[in-house]
Amino acid sequence: MALKIRKNPVVPSPYCPVSEFMNLLSGAWTTHVLWHLQATPRRFGELRVDMPQISAKTLTARLRMLEQQGLVVRTVMPTSPPSTEYGLTDIGRELIPVLSAIAEVGQKLKLSRNGNVDCADAA
Q1: 81 preceded by cis ω (within 30°)?
Q2: Could you give the CA distance from residue 17 to residue 23 in angstroms, rounded to a whole number?
Q3: In this predicted model, what pLDDT tens digit does every residue of 40-95 receive, in sequence order?
Q4: Is 115 exposed, middle or buried, given 0-12, 13-18 or 19+ CB atoms closer than 10 A?
Q5: Is 39 within 8 Å of 14 (Cβ atoms)?
């Protein structure tokens, strides 16, 4: 006899906030860019130093995408020559605790795979 299908207690909706959030963070280097902007605004060249493996084209694309999504603000500084800084918006800052939690779990997983510590012990 087949098992009865249980009703999901989570009410489905046409708009899924989890999917929206995951789409927001999708794309190579997106989380890295957010992570490196958490402490202070950074110039493009500084971000390239922070993430030497990222290409200029990809970094430009990620910064533009994050700016369009309202997570990053681009500020042109009145210097000679002009320079541009990128920083997190208020909503962008709200992602930092989420990224920190993901990083913490990732560290625990890494340690457990290396046999150094059990996941339960890492908590």
Answers
A1: yes
A2: 10
A3: 999 999 999 999 999 999 999 999 999 999 999 999 999 888 899 999 999 999 99
A4: exposed
A5: no
